[in-house]
Amino acid sequence: MAAALQEWLDRLNPEAVICHMVDEYVTHLLSLLAQRRGIPFIGYAIRSFRAISSSPAMRTEMHSMSEPRLPMKLRKLSQP
User: How many CB atoms lie within 10 A of CB 30?
Assistant: First the structure.
């Protein structure tokens, strides 16, 4: 899995990674690979879920956000 994600990071060479949180393992792995490359990583989820994660990278960053605030936050994150 790491090799496949690294291949996509090599191919796309992103300035940031914005990832819909689908699977904790894949999300955590992608966040670590991005971090090693100095690429900012943002994980988001549309539905509410308990803010508990075994992933150290995600544990301190999880918080809930009301749906109306999401577009505002994404605009702010996309500004240089």
Answer: 24
pLDDT for 13-26, tens place per residue? 999 998 887 778 88
Per the structure, the count of domains in the chain is: 1
Other residues' Cβ atoms within 10 Å of the Cβ of residue 33: 17
Give whole-number Cα distances, 39 to 54, 69, 80, in Å: 22, 24, 14
pTM over 0.85: no
- The residue range of the domain holding 71 is 2-78
Q: How far apart are CA 64 and CA 8, in angstroms?
A: 29
Structure tokens at 27: 């999300």
